Amino acid sequence: VLSDRQNPIKLMQASHVLFISSAIVLLFSNNVVASDFSKKALLLVSAIFTGFAWSYIAPSRLAALARLVPADKLHGASVLFNLLIMIGFGVAPIMIAFTREAWQWNGVFGLVIAFFTLSSILALRLNVILKKETVHYVIIEEIRESFRYLKGNRLVTQALLVAIITYTILGPVQVILPRFATEVLHLSHIDRGYFLGVMALALISGGLLCMTLLKKIHQGTAIFSALSCIGIAFMLLSTSQQFYTATIFLFLSGLTGGVVVSLVVAILQVNTDDWVRGRIMSMYTISSQIIPALSGLMAGFLLELIPIQQSIFIIGVLLLLMAIASLFTMDKLKAYP
Q1: What count of other Cβ atoms lies within 10 Å of the Cβ of residue 328?
Q2: Coil, strand or helix: which one is 330?
Q3: Is the dihedral of CA 30, 32, 36, 39 positive or negative?
Q4: What 3-state DSSP class applies to 216?
Q5: Which pTM value belongs to this model?
Q6: Residue 180: which residues within 8 A CB-CB, separation 6 or more?
Q7: At 293, phi and psi to the nearest 5?
Q8: What is residue 68's predicted lDDT score, i.e. its pLDDT?
């Protein structure tokens, strides 16, 4: 709601302050605090700061992008924006590993502070103008209004549902794949890191593929084809016994996942009205946080009942079935040019 009521640039800056505060708390805990209880308490405080910051910065950045970029360039800008996010997710673990190796955790926290300080300085020159005629109601009424908007805009609703389906893959990736790499592929600690890093590289490649072929593909067809490929790739991954074949199938699932997410974000941006954009993009952000957590929890329960490879196969089948069901029910998204 705040992303529609307030200037999204100011919300971004407030989120930067919270991220910096979170890193400062961790830096203080790492160097000054001796008690384990106090360290845990400060870790909780840092997590709360980070949670609030992430909850606000993600939708506010998307709301700001739509106000900074001309309408005819918004689709391509949204794909590029999502690509930069995926590059960040892919590069961040590598930077953290090297920084920690050189300067321990103090270096990691210092790096976080430096990057968000730089982001705040760069954002100082940005400004957007909110439409004065927008009428605001109590928060609960504005939330209801956003759901009424979704009910009347089937394309945006279907794009959100596809995003939810796509994000179900992230939970099993985080929960099952580390055990798959260790117990089935018998990889060393280093090789396991390389194997799991393939997903980040694949997501980035999916975003690059979208940018390259953006004007040459039918987006609805591309989304449902890629969504089906995610499930098929997971099913094939479950049969892999060798590092190289497993890497190929993992890369394929990440590549197609990157294509789906990049196109869905762009469709949401282009087809959502400005007065409700912050709330709709907040729903997208919430789905990217909650759905992986829930699917990861379900994947953990599944691992307690059946072997790893069967778990991966079942997840692949479920993803494929959801893709097929979506293809026959999401007519607006399927027809999107």
Answers
A1: 9
A2: coil
A3: negative
A4: coil
A5: 0.79
A6: 246, 308, 309, 312
A7: -65, -45
A8: 84
